[in-house]
Amino acid sequence: MISGRMIRPLRLLITILGAVALASLAAACGTEKISIPKDDPNYQANYEAAHLFQQRCSGCHTFNYAATMGSAANVRTKQAINGPNFNVRCERPVDRVLYAIENGGFSGAYMPANIFVGAQARQVAQFVATYAGRGAPKQPGVTTCQFQPLGTLPPPTATAAAAAKK
Ligand code: HEC
Question: pLDDT truncated to tens, each residue of the chain (166 aa)?
């Protein structure tokens, strides 16, 4: 039997073990690397955006360029909960990505709106549009994502411009 005096240290031990287990899980997530090609003319901006994506979009979207794999485990409901896999899903032109960030995807059902706003939202949109869809299987009659027009973002709103100046 565990005596009353033993319970407190035991609880502490369990808490510590739990924390260690969590820490090792988190560390395992970082084993894949962000892989923005060095010859990208927007290397710095896209590299930062990949980090932002990793921080706030990785729970739901798989995307090799940001080293993320989503997190839903059930294969049948995975696509609905996880959202599109950006390795294969083309996201051009870029303004559709900004729209999705502002509105929480296109259905507004699962994805939270405004996870990023202002300059960061634009930066992440540019990154996603640039690199999404590169792993898509080639289909006859369909232009490969990389050769579809990237498009341009609408001019920043007054608030976004003000945030960018800070
Ligand atoms: C809670 C899960 C979740 C998070 C977090 C999330 N998304 Fe989504 N996202 C989804 C789901 C589910 C869809 C598909 C349904 C829809 O469009 O409403 C989606 C759709 C999208 C689309 C439209 C894709 C298409 O072609 O239909 C884009 C672009 C997108 N997300 C980008 C992002 C970005 C960028 C972030 C981080 C700022 C992010 N998402 C964070 C779940 C998420």
Answer: 666 676 777 676 666 666 655 555 554 454 578 889 999 999 999 999 999 999 999 989 999 999 988 887 777 777 667 889 999 999 999 999 999 999 999 987 889 999 999 999 999 999 999 999 999 999 999 999 999 999 999 998 766 566 666 6
Q: How many whole angstroms separate alpha carbon 26 and alpha carbon 16? A: 15
Query: In angstroms, rounded to a whole number, what is the distance separating the alpha carbons of residues 97 and 92?
Result: 8
Q: Which atom from ligand 1 is nearest to the alpha carbon of 57?
A: 37
Q: Which residues line ligand 1 (CB under 6 A)?
A: 56-57, 59-61, 83-84, 89, 91, 97, 100-101, 105-111, 115-116, 124, 128
